Amino acid sequence: MPQLRQKILVLYLHTPALDSNVVAWSMYDGTGDTTPTTGDSDKPPYNTVVEAMQHGWRVVQFPQQFPAYPGMEYSTSYLRFEYILEKMEEIDG
Amino acid sequence: MVDKKYLLDSKQMAHFVADGYLRFDELVPTELNEAVHAEMEDHGIGRGTAGVPLSAIWPQSSPIGSVFRLPEVQGIIHSLVGPDPLYDHHAVHTVNAGRDIGQHWHADAIIDTRMHFDIQFFYFAHDTPREMGGTMILPGSHYRRVCESDIARYHNFLEQLPIVCKAGTIFVVHHGIWHCAQPNQTDRMRYMFKLRLNPTVRQMCLWNTDDLDDPAIPGILNANHKWYGNDVRLEIVNRIKFWRFLVGDDKFDVGYWMGRLENLPENVLEAA
Q1: What angle do CA A89, A21, A17 make, to 5 degrees?
Q2: Burial (CB count <10 Å: 0-12, 13-18, 19+), residue A29
Q3: Which of B145, B143, B217 is nearest to B173 (CA)?
Q4: What ipTM was reported for this prediction?
Q5: Which residue segments constitute the domains of chain B, with CATH numbers given?
Q6: CB-based contact A74 B100, cutoff 8 Å
Q7: In which band, very low, low, confident or very high, does the pLDDT at A93 lie, cut at 50, 70 and 90?
């Protein structure tokens, strides 16, 4: 029975459209094979979420969209268009 | 009094407004860098009390005090937070040799909604090649309202900037800028001296304003950072508001962004 572990890819997009460009990204590796960290790449692994899907990543969370709170219409904070993707990979043992 | 020739100019201030940082490569002389490096290795830099004037923190004989008394550094300080600012805190940041994990992205302190701002110096007393780190900053992140390490999930951004520099380089950043220490793949300890300062005067036209009407300034304030994505126009509004605060002109605009929003006619036409 193969043992599966989850890899998480977080892609932050230019707009909510899944085919818009990635502007920021993170990887978390549940297989333990790699230890991604801050500043470890200057180029995103995929240009869009759709491109990641074409390479086998499953989208597991979409960002919700809310109207701005009154008085906060022009405030900026966290990156708003955050997509979380997963891929299950076999591990040894 | 700081000689005018050491003050920042308006275009530099516009870059600070747009990017949240300014860099000054190899500003500090070699002998002073070596003295500060030794002082940091010996844990010899005394900690001051928050809220005390910077001028009272380190004696004249102290190497780190000498760095911040350099006329060029005094000019930067005066331009951004005025004469005789307050010492907030300092830290000798280190990354051990061979450390392969970067620090989480963070902003220093909690959500800060002031238009008034503190500055932080990042001073690199020794050469800092990419394999040594240094500190990574995210240009243009300083207006984002976040609480310290709430941004720790992010790993990479388009246009993130690792501070790779020669000894004696100083960065000065807005207190809100996002940053993180980077891995150190060398066999030497990496040092960075950080100092935070608070203003004691209204931060308005403290720099050399001879070029205040330079036609390049709107373009500097209008520049994009790719990681903004669809938020770029909101960030330009943030910059316009900040520039208005800095120059004391509540009508200043770039590209009609604020003029359009502030157009609220109240005159009523009589019915025909």
Answers
A1: 90
A2: middle
A3: B143
A4: 0.97
A5: 4-198 (2.60.120.620), 214-258 (no CATH)
A6: no
A7: low
